[in-house]
Specification:
Length: 312
């Protein structure tokens, strides 16, 4: 287990404190549908079983970034460094004035009262993480029991895995009886072709379930070419574009986008979040696609009452 007791894991970069203003103007009501809060550790201690210790990244800093970039809302995803203690995430939701929803980590023995507290705070999904450097594998039975517990609340499952594990996970993903959202396009190897057999497997999975959604997120994690020099054209992470654009164009009504702030586990470069927003028009060139990716889709999944006109 690579953790430090005091301070962040060695080698980690701090998140970008002074992001530039994006050139791309987000549509009104845009949702940052994948971001995290970390601690602060003295208030919300990190989980003893964590595999890394992040930089603190508070709810106030997240909300300041939201406003700076021009987002209206956030979906705060529980990260593994907080284990199944959703305290920091729930605190952010409760402080957001209804402008944040959450995705939690829960164990099968969670009580009904605890589940309904999470729901009332704004949680609408659970995350299953299969990335081995982040967590030890949870028994499949436990995950199935969690799904049974959350299904009556209308929640969905967010699933995080790497492309090499897709073949082993496909049957499980197809068997989940609630809506499923895949993080970061299933982490394709972008040095291969977006038209190649590996990404074809992922697209096939997307076609197999009409209620399978995809976050076209994390170019900064997936890119081999990296960000552009900032004195040039603001076209970041070019090698990820064909993958994300393919998904957006084929499945325009079930894609989501988020910053992934504060970008845990990056050691090579830390993205400028303003530049990350400028990735969006390259993967969703038409305004109609941008509206669906950034507003209509996340609102339908996380604020359905607001969409249908009821109190949300
Ligand atoms: C992400 C990606 C990562 C970390 C986590 O829960 C987590 O710790 O998801 C990663 O290291 O790839 O979405 O934040």
């Amino acid at each position: 287990m690579t953790v430090t007791i005091f301070g962040k894991t060695p080698g980690w970069l701090d998140w970008y404190a002074d992001p530039t203003q994006p050139a791309f103007q987000l549509p009104a009501g845009a949702v940052d549908a994948h971001c995290h809060v970390f601690g602060p550790g003295r208030v919300f201690p990190y989980a003893p079983e964590r595999k890394y210790t992040p930089c603190d990244a508070s709810k106030d800093q997240l909300f300041a970034l939201r406003d700076h970039l021009g987002f209206a809302r956030n979906v705060v995803v529980q990260a593994t460094c907080h284990g199944a203690d959703n305290g920091a995430m729930v605190d952010a939701l409760r402080s957001s004035g209804g402008l944040a929803r959450g995705v939690a980590t829960v164990r099968p023995d969670i009580t009904d009262d605890q589940l309904s507290d999470l729901h009332e705070a704004g949680v609408r999904g659970v995350r299953f993480n299969f990335v081995r450097r982040l967590v030890d594998a949870a028994p499949r039975d436990d995950l199935e029991r969690v799904v049974e517990r959350i299904a009556p609340l209308g929640w969905h499952v967010v699933i995080y895995f790497e492309a090499a594990d897709l073949a082993d996970l496909s049957d499980f993903i197809l068997s989940i009886p609630v809506t499923v959202v895949v993080d970061h396009m299933g982490r394709p190897d972008v040095t291969k072709s977006a038209d190649g057999s590996e990404f074809a497997q992922f697209l096939k999975l997307m076609r197999a379930r009409p209620d399978l959604w995809c976050k076209v997120t994390c170019p900064e994690r997936l890119s081999a070419s990296g960000p552009p020099a900032l004195d040039g054209e603001r076209q970041p992470y070019r090698d990820v574009v064909p993958f994300a654009r393919r998904v957006v164009e084929e499945f325009p009504d079930r894609v989501l986008w988020g910053t992934d702030w504060p970008h845990p586990n990056l050691t090579d470069h830390m993205p400028d979040d303003g530049l990350l927003v400028d990735f969006i028009p390259h993967i969703a060139p038409a305004t109609d696609l941008q509206q669906r990716l950034l507003v209509d889709n996340p609102m339908r999944l996380y604020w359905p009452d607001a969409v249908s006109g009821a109190a949300g």
